[in-house]
Write a structure and sequence with these properties.
alpha/beta; Rossmann fold; 3-stranded antiparallel beta sheet; 10 helices; disordered N terminus
Length: 284
């Protein structure tokens, strides 16, 4: 590995050849499509990795990445660098109204409370979505004695999963959480000037966080009743989207529900799903 001497100027731009190599590698590893318009973005994000590794050029970085040792050590960092993790509490709030007002009561009517309700937050980012879901399901459980549930939250990025597992957030990012939920499920930090809050241990225990790459094989011992995968498939091309959604359908229980983002669509895809609300589908 060539080290970058102190005082050396910033590396020259990402060569076209190296951009194509990286784009093909990223697509193969995690399904994210990087068109030529994303070259500047990738260059800017990788610049931090060059500095961290003290490498002198993007070409040197590629030589390192594509070496056996480099691939083993750097792949996770590369994925963390290129993935986008934009999220917030109660994002696309009508979805949670559908979940608590239609999906959960329907599940109780058909299944009762004998079986634990299983929900998967796929592409959970820094944890705002699964923590929102934990609050919504906990509120439903308070009103429906015996209702039990589990939440699996996955993401490809180990960096954001570490943040999600802590359950600590800036207080100014929790404005969408109802006050009664904050009182019931959140704690203020001892240092109030830091402006941080944390979900209590009881709520955090309801969520299991795991790393999962959609491009690798995955399956579950028991099918999911609900899958939230919102604002994730927009980063994939159409064939990859169809393949992933087909696998989601395999993971859903009959009558289970899939929630996708409002900027996403399954129009024209041959899937065993029927619409029940905007961007909410039920497995036939």
């Amino acid at each position: 590995m060539a080290l970058q001497p102190q005082g050396r100027s910033a590396p020259s731009g990402l060569p076209e050849r190296e951009f194509r190599r990286l784009a093909e590698f990223i697509y193969a590893e995690c399904g994210i499509k990087l068109p030529p318009a994303k070259k500047t973005m990738l260059e800017a994000r990788l610049h931090k990795r060059l500095r961290a590794l003290e490498l002198e050029s993007y070409s040197t970085y590629c030589d390192y990445l594509f070496s056996p040792k480099g691939t083993e050590l750097e792949l996770v960092n590369l994925i963390d660098t290129v993935t986008t993790n934009t999220t917030e509490f109660f994002r696309e709030p009508k979805h949670f109204d559908v979940l608590s007002g239609k999906v959960l009561p329907g599940h109780i009517r058909k299944q009762g409370v004998t079986e634990s309700f299983r929900l998967w937050s796929a592409g959970c980012s820094t944890g705002e979505e699964p923590h929102t879901l934990a609050m919504v399901l906990s509120e439903f459980a308070r009103l429906n004695q015996g209702f039990r549930f589990s939440i699996l939250a996955t993401d490809i990025s180990t960096q954001v999963l570490k943040r999600a597992m802590r359950g600590v957030y800036p207080e100014d990012r929790t404005h969408a959480i109802p006050l009664e939920y904050k009182k019931r499920y959140m704690l203020r930090g001892k240092n109030r000037s830091a402006g941080l809050v944390r979900f209590n241990e009881e709520l955090r225990r309801l969520i299991t966080f795991q790393r999962l790459n959609f491009m690798e094989e995955f399956a579950f011992k028991k099918p999911m009743h609900v899958i939230f995968c919102r604002n994730v498939i927009i980063y994939f091309d159409r064939p990859t989207q169809h393949g992933l959604l087909s696998r989601f359908c395999t993971c859903l229980a009959p009558g289970g529900h899939l929630f996708i983002g409002h900027s996403e669509s399954i129009t024209g895809m041959d899937l065993p799903l029927e619409p029940v609300a905007p961007t909410v589908y039920r497995k036939k």
